Amino acid sequence: MTALSINAERLLGRIRELGQIGRDEDARLVRLAASDADKAGRDAFVAWIGDAGLEVAVDRIGNIFGIWKDGANAGRAPILLGSHIDTVINAGIYDGCYGVLSGLEVIETLKAAGYTPARPIAVAAFTNEEGVRYAPDMMGSLVFAGGLSVEAALATVGTDGTVLGAELERIGYAGPEEPSFLKPHAYVELHIEQGPVLEREGVSIGAVENLQGISWQRVTVDGDANHAGTTPMSMRRDAGHAAACVVTFLRDCARASNTPTVATVGCMSFEPNAINVIPSRATFTVDLRDPDEQRLQAAEAALAAYLKELAIAEEVTISVERLARFEPVTFDRKIVELVEAAARKRGLASKRMTSGAGHDAQMIARIAPSAMIFVPSLGGVSHNPREHTPDADLVAGANILLDVVTCLTAQ
Amino acid sequence: MTALSINAERLLGRIRELGQIGRDEDARLVRLAASDADKAGRDAFVAWIGDAGLEVAVDRIGNIFGIWKDGANAGRAPILLGSHIDTVINAGIYDGCYGVLSGLEVIETLKAAGYTPARPIAVAAFTNEEGVRYAPDMMGSLVFAGGLSVEAALATVGTDGTVLGAELERIGYAGPEEPSFLKPHAYVELHIEQGPVLEREGVSIGAVENLQGISWQRVTVDGDANHAGTTPMSMRRDAGHAAACVVTFLRDCARASNTPTVATVGCMSFEPNAINVIPSRATFTVDLRDPDEQRLQAAEAALAAYLKELAIAEEVTISVERLARFEPVTFDRKIVELVEAAARKRGLASKRMTSGAGHDAQMIARIAPSAMIFVPSLGGVSHNPREHTPDADLVAGANILLDVVTCLTAQ
Predict the structure, then answer these.
(1) Which of A276, A321, A384 to mutate to test the interface with B (most CBs of B within 10 A)?
(2) A187, A394, B15, B270: most buried by Cβ count inside 10 Å?
(3) Domain A213-326: which CATH number of 3.40.190.10, 3.30.1240.10, 3.40.50.960, 3.30.70.360
């Protein structure tokens, strides 16, 4: 089977075709979960599943499955491939769609080659991975993995006031299957990196061994609004200055620690936000991530200790609100090794790496051995029309997925 | 004359009465320049000038003067007292009004006591000191001092689209006098400190010897928006972090310099301002003040040099826009000494100090020896309904003004 390769033209053609579905009046790609645009994307995917001669199944949360099984393997747990086809606002064409269409491509390639897998192979497009219209993100895979009840998920009210369950009914994707109808033997998700590492290091294949834990907090610093001209430096309780100290502290810590910890202050606002008034309040967010739970906890503890010191030193009041917290996920070592072996065989450089972003794979990892394969994102750009991966890398990644699936279904 | 004192009840009563004029539907004090509320305040002041038997004059920019002269001194340049009675939105009752009404009180006290000054004494309420509705602030005194043509000032378009000249006509305060009609021999302005120093140090009287120079700049840092999870710390061009470095740099400089330089970052905004996106842009303001022009220039130069280094070190682009620049003003040494001597005689503690805020006195200092007297502001609070100065301090300040004027008009 080593000589087998996917049909590059078919895969790239479908990625581009799906990327044209759901353009708004400004030609922006917007396929928010359970919208009319999402329906159009889903319809295209379901049609392709049918063209490939696979069985289509839709579960109650709207996850779509294309299943290839035969009389000999129908009783065994399938190898599941997949990702999502919903998008952010003004998205690129690769995020999610690449993994879904590559999963389908791998099955079609194997089927056309007369391969007889020892297990069924299925491809999934999970509902609402992006979480733009309905929170939380990765909802379809979370429900599929039993982490959230289907009833609670369907009752979610969106940012536009709609209810997810009603919208799924409306677009015809409130399926009959319980999300637990399919129990994967293993799960493999192919995805663009959405970060700059593979491109910078000239590596084609990322063998993703884990996924960072995420800690989101909102910090509010309260000081005193006073006149910028008449208040001596020594008499200030400057909330903006204290906030700036936290920003530089986080960066210095993350850089000094020689660990993969990343720390980001993405949101910042000052009150009253006037040029000649010392800020009475600064509000900002802290995004901490680490693939190791203990290091993530250590980073959180270091921040908490610093905020305590800072509040005393600057005579400000600091309060912290937790916005989100996910533990790191460790992917299946054996599948990661299969990815590395496949890359080696095809003469491609590979690198063990951490996923910095959240993915459906982190949810499926709760119920089945899982791993991910990354391909380079030029400039690390994602969630943006400039998101781009060269065709050669797209094809290479899909071929690695083909090889890994072949191994996983050999017996 | 040393036993003479002002009529505390009359002064305090007028401050409170004027403080009730121009309340909006939420009971906030709002007398923006040339508004109906400002007209009501002006009318009250003009009536009090009349009650005191003074001559009323209004110049073309709407500055109001109450002039006390007699046949013997009419040919000599007057001693001018004053401040402003326009306010910010949701103002306190003391800022400006205290100086205007104390000037009137001093004249009435001297007049009632049968004092015969060697020079005329006049009190002025300058138009649009606050600059909330029409820019620039301190406009009436700037025009009076010849720093801006009356035509240019009258043509100013306000934040509400109105034209100042038309509004002054409408409220009946487009006077006939050229702003140069009155040439002061000296100018003394009594004002609340609007800062915390006098209260903290337990001093009643500030002998204001200079007024800080002001440098306002807007700084824009451009980096790269990237995913907070997938972008290693070493590959970031984080505009928010660079902005935070500037905030801490400015504070560290101002604190380390052992000079009265003050530095404030009052406005701050991040783009795209999303929790999981590294800021691509940070925009913030820098307010630098110092009573010494060379030190102010040094602070500006230090900031410029730091921004240059930072742009290289952080691989960000930094641009700077100058928003305002005023040189420091040195007040008249002799008048400052008169203030100190008067405080000593009345057994009041005094302190030479710098005005951190801008005042009409800085404009009049261009054409006449000028100085200011400060009284404590509780908590340093101003431009706020919580603005407060105890009655005893208000009365003490007005008595110091009385004594200084007595000295200045003795010969």
Answers:
(1) A276
(2) A187
(3) 3.30.70.360
